[in-house]
Amino acid sequence: MAVLKKNKDRDASIPDGSLADIAFLILIFFMVATTIDMDKGIGIILPPEGEEVELNKDRITKVLIDPKGKVFLDGEIVEMDDVQKEIEKLLLENSKMIFSVKAHESAKYKDYIAVLDQLKMANADKNISIAQ
Amino acid sequence: MKQWKRKSKQKAEIPTTAMPDIVFMLIFFFMVSSVLRTAEGLPVNLPQAKKIQKLKSRVNVTYIWVNKAGMISIDGQLVKPENIRNIAFVKQKEAQGDLTISLRADVDTKYEVIDRIHKELRKAQAFKINYSTRTAS
């Protein structure tokens, strides 16, 4: 009988001292596993369909990209890293200069993006035109 | 002196009983706010760029995946170039004209394909494009 009585006296409770620790562990896991990776890239607005604006030739600079990744600014070959400088020069002359980017069919996307990047770096955001 | 003694007897403890509740609340917040990756596209090697901007939100963004072979994938499904206009048009309508296309193309994709997509998107009146890139180191 004595054994039974001792059993009755026992306090039967689940230990919850480490509850917070476990909760913290899960919290940290979720904080680490959550990727708040926003998509980043180069934004551009395409021209509406069928809208053609005649422009004075002086206001247009043709930016051509050939299959080998060479860049031509109005017919003159320019190194990829120098594009930004040249664009800046042209913008100084005429801030409303339009840069018409045209790439060869087999030109690589990489080079196209590199040229757009250079244009963006020269702050020519609003002066980019994608030729069709 | 009596008063002073009483003060020192007081236990200065921060109540921690509500701590697990707060932590659980934080857990739920992170669980709900974490977005699991939706439909993946094609394996692509994104180009690098220096002057990049972040997309404002994930709402009304459609991803177009293009690999170097010129295969195009939207929402985890391979599509033909001529079908892009229909898909983009429907999405543009759903987004009430606020659709952003995120183009995730491989570095070696030919411009031909990109140009084709441009044309299709113009037909679908989806003009807002974001060329997805990595940050150049």
Task: Please provide a brief summary of the model.
The complex is a heterodimer of chains A (132) and B (137). By secondary structure, chain A is an alpha/beta fold. Chain A has helices at 2-9, 19-33, 83-93, 109-121; strands at 40-45, 60-65, 71-73, 76-78, 98-103, 128-130.
What are its keywords?
heterodimer; A: 132 residues; alpha/beta; five-stranded mixed β-sheet; 4 helices; B: 137 residues; two-stranded parallel sheet; 8 strands
Describe the structure.
The complex is a heterodimer of chains A (132) and B (137). Chain A has 132 residues and is an alpha/beta fold. Helix content of chain A is 36%, strand content 20%. The relative contact order of chain A is 0.14. In chain B, 34% of the residues lie in helices and 21% in strands. Chain B has helices spanning 2-9, 19-33, 84-94, 111-123, and strands at 48-49, 53-54, 61-66, 72-74, 77-79, 100-105, 128-132, 134-135. Chain B has a five-stranded mixed sheet, covered by helices on one side. The termini of chain B are far apart. At the A-B interface, α2, β1 and α4 of A face α2, β2, β6, α4 and β7 of B. β1 (40-45) of chain A pairs antiparallel with β2 (53-54) of chain B.
